[in-house]
Design brief:
The complex is a heterodimer of chains A (about 325) and B (about 350). With about 325 residues, chain A is mainly α. Chain A has a domain of about 160 residues: MetI-like (MetI-like fold, Orthogonal Bundle). Chain A is about 75% helix and about 0% strand. In chain A, strands 1-2 form a two-stranded antiparallel ribbon. In chain A, strand 1 and strand 2 form a beta hairpin. In chain A, helix 7 packs across helix 9. The longest helix of chain A is centred in the middle third of the chain and has 34 residues. The radius of gyration of chain A is 26 Å and the shape is globular. The two termini of chain A are about 35 Å apart. A six-stranded mixed sheet of chain B has the order 6-7-8-3-9-10, sandwiched between helices. In chain B, helix 2 packs across helix 3. Chain B is elongated, with a radius of gyration of 24 Å. The two termini of chain B are about 35 Å apart. The chains are: A mainly alpha (about 325), B alpha+beta (about 350). At the A-B interface, helix 1, helix 10 and helix 11 of A face helix 2, helix 4 and helix 5 of B.
Chain lengths: ~325, ~350
Amino acid sequence: MKGGMTMAASTDATTSTTTDAAPSAPPPVRTGAGWSWTPYLLSLPGLALFAVLLLVPLLMTALLSLNSFSFYGGIQDVWRFDNYAEILADSYFHEVFLRTFRIAALVTLLCALLGAPQAYILRRMKAPWRGLCLLIVLGPLLISVVSRTLGWALLLGSTGLVNQGLMALGLVAEPIEFMYTETGVVIALTHVLVPFMVLSVWASLQRLDPQVENAALSLGAGPSTVLRRIVLPQIVPGILSGSIIVFALAASAFATPAIIGGRRLKVAATLAYDEFLNTLNWPLGATVAILLLLANIVIIVGCNRLVERRYKQVFE
Amino acid sequence: MPYLVLDKLTKRFTSWTAVDDLSLTVEKGELISLLGPSGCGKTTTLQMIAGFLDPNAGRITLDGQDLLAKKPNERGLGIVFQSYALFPHMTAAENVAFGLEMRGTSRADRDRMVAETLKLVGLDSYGDRYPRRMSGGQQQRVALARALVIKPHLLLLDEPLSNLDAKMREEMQIELRRIQRSVGTTMILVTHDQSEAMALSDRVVVMNKGRIQQVATPQEAYDRPANAFVANFLGRTNLLPGTVRQDAEGSSITVGDARWPVLQPVPPGPGALAVRPEKISFVAAAGLTGVVQARVFQGTQWLFEVETAAGRMMVIRQHDGSVLPNERERVMVGWRPEDMAVMPAQEAA
């Protein structure tokens, strides 16, 4: 019996080494004599598109942010970090950026709290209802963000449906201020962005072996324990990638903060817009855009690292 | 006293009946296989015992207790899934410990039992590996350990070896049998692989289209299949139509130009006999005449195709140096009456 067991163990080792070795056997890029250009040539059209449409404009924006601006002379062709210094020193800009990321963080949290359970419930639904409900959840993506946001403006106004309903129920005495407040922006943005979270969690649920939940049940775990200990840890990657998408979109959202937040409640995107089109200070607008991009990258990469380390084995 | 009783179990889905009026009793400590082609209702039966599906009718009792009244997480059964269904975010040891944790076992006892069970399945040094870092065979053992560690009343195995390659499968069969002997758990194995069922089980339950075809020891089912389905499903067989007669000398069956005494009680009239290819030999007299159509060398044996008056037959002879007929040679084939199974014509359909 002991012999049988060691034999089995050694077979395991051989099978795993052969499967590991198999894919690395033909080297994909290096072919015998030297370097093969074929993969790079084949991806050239895609790379060219990427460079022309993304890298060049981005570079031009970065260069523009180094120029300076005066009301009478227009854009001056100088290369200085004055705009950056101005933004980093002025508390007005601090407030705008803080507000932007506060809204983005809140929206991300709300989307995770709403979207993850939504995706899980959708997956457990039976055939005809599942498709229908998925369509309802993803439906908002089919409507222009401007019309959706104007719809929220109608609902959230001081004489809008939400306030009328709350007052009719006697829950509030005076209408709550939704319009031109952060609360209103957060509500509308959450509605716009929650489908991205649902889709992302849905994708990670698809990879979940449905028998795993049954296995946990058979071992004596109650339904809530199964959710907490078995399902949730496995969909964390989905929640994380959903959060990255939602956070990035919320932090750079323009239409919703512009309509619900208005002129008074500025976020980074509306600030850049105003610098470009109202003040005509293009360099300052470009600086805001570049800083928004950098902050977004730092926050997203940082969070990603943190969660990836915590759930390492699930990501592999 | 029977340990597990399935009584008139029926499960209907919208368009078909997966399990139809199934009754079965299992003794304590027995290893019984549910064997059949895919869609025969064997997995559905297992899922009803596990509690993942509710039957439309029927009862299940385990040790005298009504199992259907309990939720799946209260049944205390061990289950090994076809996909193994390991928790990918937990190490092998954490996977095995999960069931004990749910039972509130103390930390010290838990660690001891996990170590013991991992040793039982031959994975002593793999406790801190994640399933992703293990081979199929190792994952399979973790799944087995996870189900065994809770000392289940009943262990359900759903096609546990089907994802392994042929060599691993044979090794795991021996391993499973050894573990079953040493822990003495009652086991129900679901499989479509007849050799696996034969190698492992005390009894096999051959199923087709939601109904039980035969319940017998593997040898009995192979040697004396209850009907044509069982005969064909368990290895290769020759099925020949004939006529059963009852006269002064007893019962007999006529097939083509030959006649054999029938040892089982079979009603007179149109019937059929099933005989395994390896039980047939070439005889000098009192046999069925035919012509060898083809002969194929297979190493340890020769395979013959013989055209007879009753139909085409397959004959297997050992490659032991004896003189064997050539192609297109007229031969006579025969077998011992106790090597054939005789059934009424409707069972042979």
